[in-house]
Amino acid sequence: MLMISPRMATGMQEKQYTPSLLNFFIYNPKFGPREGEEEKKILFYHPSDVEKNEKIRNVGLCEAIVQFTRTFCPSKPAKSLHTQKNRQFFFEPEENFWIVMVVRNPMVEKPNKEGKPPTIEYQEEEILDTVYGAVLQQCYSMYKLFNGTFARAMEAGGVELLTQKLEKFFYRYLQTLHLQSCDLLDVFGGISFFPLDKMTYLKIQSFVNRVEESLSLIKYTAFLYNDQLIWSGLEQDDMRILYKYLTTSLFPRHSEPELAGRDSPLRPEVAGNLLHYGRFLTGPSNLKDPEAKFRFPKIFVNTDDSYEELHLIVYKAMSAAVCFMISASEELGREFCEQLDGLVGPQLTLLASDICEQYNINRRVSGPDKEPQFKFIYFNHMNLAEKSTIHMRKTASVSLTSVHPDLMKILGDIHADFVRVDEDEEIIVKAMTDYWVVGKKSDQRELYVILNQKNANLIEVNGKSTYFVLIPRIGSKVKK
Amino acid sequence: MSEEHYLELCDSPVQFENASSVNNVFFDEANKQVFAVRSGGATGVVVKGPDDKNSIAFRMEDKGEVKCIKFSYENKILAVQRSPKSVDFINFMPDLPHSEFSQECKTKNATVLGFCWTSWNEIVFITDQGVEFYQVLPDKRSLKLLKSHSINVNWYVYCPETSVILLSTTVQGNVLQPFAFKCGTMSKMSKFEIELPVVTKPAKIILSERDIAVATIYGQLYVMYLKHHSRTGNNPGAEVVLYHLQREGACKRSHILKLNTTGKFALNVVDNLVIVHHQSSQTSFMFDIKMKDTDSNLNIHQPVLPARSIHPYKIALTGPAAVGSQTPVPCELYSSTWSVFQPDIIISASEGYLWYLQVKLKPVVSLLQDKSKLMEFLLRRRDCKMVILSVCSQMLSRGDKGSLPVVAIVFDKLNQVYKEYLEAEQSYTMAVECGPSRGSTAHKRPVRTQAVIDQSDMYTHVLSLFTERKDVSHKFIIAVLMEYIRSLNQFQITVQHYLYELVIKTLVQHNLLYMLHQFLQYHVLSDSKPLACLLLSLESTYPPAHQLSLDMLKRLSTANDEIVEVLLSKQQVLGALRFIRSVGGHDNISARKFLDAARQTKDQMLFYTIFRFFEQRNQRLRGSPNFTPGEHCEEHVAYFKQAFGEQAFIKPVTL
Questions:
Q1: Eight-state DSSP code of residue A30
Q2: Belongs to which family (chain A) (predicted)?
């Protein structure tokens, strides 16, 4: 059942294995407090084919560790347990509900002389608590986005409903976890904002306001361009996870057929006498189809206070995508979808080409893209703005980075240092082969720069890194 | 119903003795004066001016029936025509003899049709055989012929505003010859022909002077021709044809106003609107030649609004008939005894009243449903500001579905006019600054009309009240504010700080801080010190406001002191010092301020670091690490000594 993927082979037959998911389970110690009832505590267990007693044993162990460590620090329960072969991450998202993820450490398999089994070396220091802790939290956030809280499910249908929901969600979700490519960006869980001039931004505002006014069912709207956020009517935390879903799951799913030439978006729809390229990414894939289904995914937002369940309509024209969120209690049918298509399609098409034009003008103003001398990751905790020149396009399957994993690990280590102290800091690391890594933390911002310069010394690197006070700005001014 | 009367007679008419067998009434269009001449002047002439205050009364000898009587400008010379051959003059200037003198027309056998003053001492005689332009020499009691022109004249029309006289020539009378007068010169403009509807029998004057009027509309001179269609044809009705009369170049037919009815009409021009009174229906039509009808051909206009009668008017019966009883009685409107003069005068000679016709804008608002058209219409009117602002308020208060696009259009229209004014003002200022060196053209300061609705008007009369409303959703309020800001930006008008404040206030009120954050992120709310301070004050409710504020101050680059203060207040002493050093201001900062802040943190090492920094600065600037008495750091020096001991001080370098 182990998912093993060799990373790189060094030496003769030496094999390297990346970190992988061993177990993932959710339990509530209150559900089976008496002896013999331990199985009741377990709400979800992956892999499901593990023998019952082993499940109970593993859950019991976690429970014990959490209980035990709590005596040392009641306010901060244990977050992870390091062992030689694997690492366990604990997370209590709701009272008494625990999610545990067990990750097998990366390892190197060294062949021995004939006949003898190969020696396995576990690289237990290679994985970072911050990264996988964040991944675990993200699992819960994603579950909550589509299913609401555990407590609500319990209220609605007891343990039975909750386990059903967990089963249904995590069965598929865990398959999309790619633990080997998790890095600092998963820790930040940031949002990439689309740089835009004020006037075009105001036009988008105007568009959003108009649509919300004429289709008053719409409660919230979010606007994205090129998979980057421009406007969110949702609160920051909800947007953060919705953004994650859109950019790592929904958009890549739809862009691949586009690239493959099927479902070509270049065939414009005609609404009234206006051509437009708008189409639904959720709900009906073709409005003209008499069999079309008008069912939209439901999401849960503001779960801390108003607890709203919403239809999620994602509508896209060219590179502009808009999310319209409507209370789940509303019935959405063909009529509404046609109305929305007729209203939004032409306007959004126009707006998308406006943005594209403006974006190209800005790019021309700021000069041609030069290959920068350095790579960086920027994150601002205040607005979750994130920018990375290290990461390539994210797809549903993998996120590609352009630097060596070892450098990524250094970034993660620096970040872990920053978390430990409140004050502004700067850390410079000399990595292997002419690489320098500079980490800066200022107020709520973090900046990581990777420099590659032969024979550079500390003073030079420090001098260079001061250039990076250039904080990436989201709104860009257009020169007249 | 009364709300629909968009035309009215003015409240304070000029009253005069009504016309009768013994009292002849004359009206001078140039000075807007009414002359009541009793018994040929022998028993008195009473002249009432446009504002009815300064009336002039005098007597003159009865030398026969008066045909025409007019003062020159500023009432300096009176001209009276009593015979078909000559005009008599009386000096009205002090120190000059009052006795009459007379001038006969120069052309033999000609008949004087009338005369017009073109300045205080220049006069034009129009005879059936041409025009004669004279200068009056009051002290010499004689006239000097400046210029003359021979042409057969049927009748004439004078436009005093532009000093243009229009002569009707040819047999049918439809070829019009304009002359313009200015400072002793007479210039002949190009003649033009009025297209007549049907030529029945030639050799007969068909074009009547009653059907021609001259007026300035939107600063341009137009000849208005009331074209009656014969009833026999299947023509829908009469129309008014406007000919654009230019100083140079041919006169062109430019606009057609469709009346869609027949009968007796009279024309006025009020506030650049052409008003056509229709007697039989007792209503008036209103046309705006700048209003484009989308569905019709170029420059064919339908009335702006449905025809309505002038607002009912009551007059107080005075005079011998009703002594004592002052009860006002309704005045008969559209009476056949009314005379209509350009541009906006209606006279009832039989009742002794002169009114100015006025357009009321309020009723227009309810009659003209299309807000975009309405706004265009209002922006072209003289007293439009308050009406426009009330239309804006009204439009926002109802909050109808789908009204945002309309709101956007209205804002764009307002801001277009606003922007044009700002640009004119700017180029004027620049021209003035450049000095009169190049100045053959005198710079004219642009006039700010009421149609210029600026941000402060919108703020005071519309937006600030609107944002207070409890019955409108905050979503709509914010949408409207953003729409206004969008419109201002679109016209590249700098948005005033108080509008941003309004946006922020509304967002904060409804706890929409993430929205505010996003607006700031995209610089929708432009950077300014007041805005940064406002953000700082929000920090307790929304912590990210602190970073937003600091970033803004940094971008302003004129607020380094403020940044230091903010950082020190947050006890970020090192941060403050690093910042001020990065901008090169660390030689001028107060050591005491930083040491005070460092002491407050109760962090010994921090205090040590800061103290050491300033010791080094002293060393560098003055060659000694000691603080000067002016820096008031004694207290901190003592504390440093107590905490770290004497040996911790930097030793002064002694050579």
A1: G
A2: Belongs to the CCZ1 family.
